[in-house]
Amino acid sequence: MKKILTTVCCLIAVSGVFAKEHMPTKEEYKAFLNTKTLVVMDANPMSDFNFKIKEVMDAVWTLTDYEFISNDEFEDKRNDPAYSFLISTVATFDADKTKARYNFLSLLLGETDSEVRDLPDLCSLPLSYLRVEDVSYAYKLEAFVRFIQDHVNLMNERPELIKPNAFKYYNDNVKSLDDKTLFLVKEDLAPEVNTVAKIKSFYPYDVKIVTRSEVEDAIERKDDSVVFMHKVGPEGTKYKARCYKILIGADSSTFYYFDYHMVTKKNRDGLLMKDLKKMAS
C-alpha cells in the first residue's frame, strides 16, 4: 500500500472522520483467516455497489465465511475480533492540501476497544472520486475483490512485503505486458492519448479502446490475454484531485501498474503519455 495511505484521513458512512495510522502486522493478516467477513452494504439499497457486491462475493470469495450487514450492524460488531469487514470508505489526503474525497474499498479487521480509525486495514483500493456515480466502477468489483484476496494471501506468504508502500511490489509486473492486450475505456484517457494511433506512438504492445461492457465481459471470462485499466479521478469536477491509474489482469486480477498524479491543466484526468512510456520501458 502506498505510504500516503498510512496517514490518510478517512470517513466511514456511519462513523465520522478518522485518521488511518495502523499498518497491519503479520499476526493480523494471519488472524484474518479465522474471522467471518461481514460485507457492509451501502446505505442506498438501490446502489450499483449493493447489487454487484452480492453477486461478486458469491462468485469469488473463498478465504472466509461471509455475510452481508448494514451500517448499523457494523457499528455493533466492529470491536469483535471474530469479524473482518469489507466496507466502502471515503478518504482524503491532508498532504495534498485539497478538499478532494475518494471512495475506497477496504478490508478491516475487528479489534477490541478500538475506534474505527484504529482498526487494522489489511487492504484498501481506490474505487472512485466521491462525486462520481458507483456505476463507474461497479462493473470491475469482481477484479477488486479477487485482488484483495490475493493480496492477503501474498502478505501471509511473504510478510516481509508488509510495508506502507506494499503496492509498489506489483509494479514489476509491468515488464510482462508484451503478450497482453491492453483494454482502455476512452473516457479514462487524457486527450494526448485518446486514440489507438496516439497510444501506439508511445506503447508498442497490443491495445484496444473498448466499452465498459467489454471490460466486464473480459473479467467474467477471466481472459488471460487481457489487462484493463482502472482510473480514479474527479471526472470533470472543479476540485484539484488525484488521478489513480491501475492496470489489472482480467484473469487473475494481478496488478501490473499502480500510480497516481495530481490533476492539473497540463496533467489531465486520465492516462497520460508518461504512463504509457513507463509501461513500455
Structural class of the secondary structure composition? Answer: alpha/beta
Low-confidence stretches: 1-20
- Which range does the strand content fall in? 25-35%
Helix content: 10-25%
User: How many domains in all?
Assistant: 2
Question: pLDDT average, as an integer?
Answer: 89
Structural commentary:
With 281 residues, the protein is of the alpha/beta class. It has two domains: 3-161, no CATH class; 168-280, no CATH class. 24% of the residues lie in helices and 27% in strands. It is built from seven helices and twelve strands. The strands form two sheets. Strands 1, 2, 3, 4, 5, 6 and 7 form a seven-stranded mixed sheet that branches. Strands 9-8-10-11-12 form a five-stranded mixed sheet. A hairpin with a 3-residue loop joins β1 and β2. The longest helix has 17 residues, at 141-157. The protein starts with 8 loop residues before the first strand and ends with a helix. 40% of the residues are buried.
